[in-house]
Write the structure tokens for this entry.
Amino acid sequence: MRQFFHRGDKFQPVSVDDERLNQPQLDGLWQKCPNCDETLYSREVEHNLNVCPKCDYHFRLGARERITLLLDEGSFDEWDTDVRTADPLEFIDPSGSYATKVEKTRSKTGESESLITGIGTIEGRPIAVAVADFGFMGASMGSVFGEKLTRAVEQSAQTGVPLLSVNASGGARMHEGLFSLMQMAKTVAAFARLGEARVPHISLLVDPCYGGVTASYATVADIIMAEPGALIGFAGPRVIEQITKQKLPDGFQTAEFFLDHGMIDLIVDRATLRRRLADLLDHYARARQVDRGESIPWIPNANGSGRELNGNGAERQNGVAQ
């Protein structure tokens, strides 16, 4: 037992080790796909929603790019832009102070924090969004991240507007110590209240999603979706192998592995994501109408017939009660 706690080379901290975590940004005339090694014309990749046209690999997107991709043009209204990160522990390491790192990241990314929240529409349907930006300190969850997310959840609970969280993260922001870890409980509690208000939370896991974010609110949702090939987990696979002394199966911690083992509900590629989200919002709206005792408008099927639900849940065919 004494050897287990001994500080040896075997148990040195290891970061998430998949080489795709350090993939180059999408710039320049040409780029190489990290999955199939094909050399690609950058403009072609951009027109294909930043998906490799050869192997369907989904390149990473920044938070603003995702908002543009998901929401109707001009519909986004951002929330809580004035909330700023503090340095409660006055954290300093050999590379500099936490406050200095935050300021440098703000200057580099143009963002104030690693989470962007607001409201918009998807094909005319209102939706609140909370989108993590991996380019801002690895989308680590600190106190401002947790506060902005909690405020967005409270807004959704109050207004009845569904919430979509787009989750990419390296985990908790340990520069803030316990303040960071507290955000796991804080956000999960907020989502519990959202559930009590019968307002849905749709979670989209994108590459990479690790640590305290995966272990908290990102996997506490009515529907958990993921992009193809997204890396999802808590600790990195190399760390798990070192501690368990077992060889992990192929594809471990990928979205496909999670789907096969019942950890997520579905995998959706970017080309169909907006349509799938719109369908889910329609299903929610109809269920809410039934809860309120309202009739659901007649919905035509492909053959011209259709169905309608009364407020008591009774089905009507072509407007006639059955």
Residues 292-322 form one domain.
